[in-house]
Amino acid sequence: xxxxxxxxxxxxxxxxxxxxxxxxxxxxxxxxxxxxxxxxxxxxxxxxxxxxxxxxxxxxxxxxxxxxxxxxxxxxxxxxxxxxxxxxxxxxxxxxxxxxxxxxxxxxxxxxxxxxxxxxxxxxxxxxxxxxxxxxxxxxxxxxxxxxxxxxxxxxxxxxxxxxxxxxxxxxxxxxxxxxxxxxxxxxxxxxxxxxxxxxxxxxxxxxxxxxxxxxxxxxxxxxxxxxxxxxxxxxxxxxxxxxxxxxxxxxxxxxxxxxxxxxxxxxxxxxxxxxxxxxxxxxxxxxxxxxxxxxxxxxxxxxxxxxxxxxxxxxxxxxxxxxxxxxxxxxxxx
Length: 335
Ligand code: UDP
What we know:
Elements: E1 2-6, H1 11-23, E2 27-32, E3 50-54, H2 60-68, E4 72-75, H3 82-87, H4 89-110, E5 114-119, H5 147-167, E6 171-176, E7 179-180, H6 191-201, E8 205-208, E9 214-215, E10 218-219, H7 220-232, E11 240-243, E12 249-250, H8 251-262, E13 268-271, H9 273-277, H10 292-298, H11 306-317
Parallel strand pairs: 1-2, 1-4, 2-3, 4-5, 5-6, 6-11, 7-10, 8-13
Antiparallel strand pairs: 9-12
Helix pairs in contact: 1-7, 2-4, 4-5, 6-8, 6-11
Bound molecules: uridine-5'-diphosphate.
């Protein structure tokens, strides 16, 4: 069977490609515009089962062609990272809205099973943790650019449900909660690669705000196997499911864990949000998935595993030479 992975050269996409090549006999077609994705993420894969297309998900004809040759589609291509959204609001909106509509419309022609990547950002600044899929979404005003990402992803989800309900499209939506791991770059502001790079360089770790905000970090290896299982499970079609580990960590604790784990002399500096992201910035204070539905559908949910995440992210930046001080499997304390 042939599987299309949009955004397959990106951080999560390339791990999904690894997983599919390892766990299935499928032929994989990657579509990526290499804006935030990178050919380096796929360079280790030498197989005639993989084809890489350089192209834009906003190109409806290209999408129609690629989807018509596919037996399943994972739609991961998107403008990602708070910094990318804040700096490029128009192209981010267009990629995230038009790209998804093109994929869903094309998949409808043959009823091709489709996975749509959504985000925990969907819950906005709701404080009703843990977030269940049916919970209310709480956003700030349209003058605050950050919320355009959540709004576009919410529109994508509405589109997915509409295609499912009106055209019987077998589509499942996964809401990713701060997926992290090797190959994620700090270039777009993501916190774990940023902190690890700062700690290894002996620079201050830039904790935004007072650092009490929480995130539920989820290892990319768990995220991609869940992604595959969800698309493979007919009971999940027409559903939206949280994909995350239900154990939040504060950003202050994360920074301390990174310093500890890298045995770094770096110190923590608190940076006001406005300085980091510009004026009128708003920040979700807490983020934690309710994984009841994920467990019901798949029978399992990821465990919080900051130790493994930090080990893997540090390891790839130190050529396997762990910084002194700790063995790779030693526990990292996060309160
Ligand atoms: N953050 C931080 N310092 C950084 C980058 C991010 O303190 O250099 C914070 C950010 O404000 C947020 C959390 O870390 O509270 C996670 O940020 P990220 O951009 O990784 O993901 P988000 O959850 O904001 O989408």
